[in-house]
Design goal:
Structural class: mainly beta
Helix content: under 10%
Order of helices and strands: HEEEEEEE
Distance between the termini: 86 Å
Number of helices: 1
Strand content: 25-35%
Number of strands: 7
Length: 81
């Protein structure tokens, strides 16, 4: 009755798109901490809302907490004329 032979439907598959951009890199301890004169210090600022252990992400002109959304914008310095 139908126009199909054998009752099987032909499946169409789409090709996968090639990923563009950077691949996610895990943050190791070498990027978070710095050893200075026998003392261990943190590279990044911690979030004032969430407390120690949650660091602010450093972007071009701002620092951002991914957990609570706290944002600090860096001020632009005026050039002396």
């Amino acid at each position: 009755m139908g126009g199909q032979e054998g009752g099987k439907k032909e499946s169409k598959r789409k090709e996968r798109k090639q990923r563009t951009g950077r691949k996610h890199e895990s943050v190791g301890p070498k990027k978070i901490y710095v050893l200075e004169g026998g003392k261990l210090s943190r590279n990044k600022k911690s979030c004032p809302r969430c407390g120690p252990g949650t660091w602010l992400g450093a972007h071009k002109a701002r620092s951002y907490c991914g957990k609570c959304g706290y944002t600090v914008f860096e001020r632009k310095l005026k050039r002396p004329e």
